[in-house]
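## retry 2 of 3
previous attempt timed out at serialization; input unchanged, resubmitting
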Amino acid sequence: MADKEWIKIKTRYCDHVNEAVDLQAEAVFPAEVLPDQPPRLGAHRCDQGYLCSLSDQAACVWAGTNPAFDPFLENLDKKKPKAQ
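## retry succeeded, writing output
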């Protein structure tokens, strides 16, 4: 039988709860009969998402309250040089 475990992906500062939060993913590890396969990542969450769920304001995709906003998404436009 497969094992499920929440693993930490990264730690970021969250303005909504004013503290550092751990962003986690659910890893599904294969059964022992299939040891050569890597774990599959399923759902994702924030370890402080319950605080955002208690608020009356929608927070972000990591808390599960606003699927259209990811405050931790790294902006790739800043890394690209501007065309002249």
